[in-house]
Specification:
2 domains; 88 residues; 5 strands; globular; 39% helix; 3 helices
């Protein structure tokens, strides 16, 4: 598993971010932050590829938000490829 967060989260929630990074490192997983505002989850289960894209910030937010769940290997690969540029 890999997580890419925004710099705003890293700066605003320093203790939470530090706990996340330490927990991921113990599991030999990657957690980084960079300038982004994307809310995307990629899930692969066998030959099924799921992409969850949405507008919602993953912190407290009183607004109406939306999410889209797509089963698409092409869309999965598109997001995976640009995300890998940050993780490598």
């Amino acid at each position: 598993m890999s997580i890419i967060t925004g710099l705003y989260f890293k700066r605003r929630e320093t203790a939470v971010y530090a706990t996340l990074v330490q927990g991921m490192a113990k599991r030999h997983q990657t957690c980084i932050s960079c300038e982004n505002h994307a809310k995307i989850i990629l899930i692969r289960k066998g030959n099924k590829y799921y992409v969850i894209e949405g507008s919602a910030n993953w912190t407290g937010n009183p607004r109406i938000e939306q999410n889209t769940v797509t089963q698409s290997e092409g869309l999965y690969n598109f997001h995976r490829d640009w995300m890998r540029t940050f993780l490598e």
